[in-house]
Amino acid sequence: MWNDTGSVLISPSIIAADLATFGHDVAKLDPGVVDFLHIDVMDGCFVPNLTFGPGYIKNLISHTNIPLDVHLMIASPESSLSRYIELTPKIITIHYESTRFPIRILDQIRSSGTMAGLSFNPATPISNVVDLLPYLDMVLLMSVDPGFYGQKFLEISMRRIMELRELISKAGLSENVMIQVDGGITQENIAAVVRAGARIVVAGNAAFHNGAVNENVSKLKESALKGLR
Ligand code: DX5
Ligand code: ZN
Question: Domains of the chain, with CATH numbers?
Answer without folding.
Answer: 9-228 (3.20.20.70)
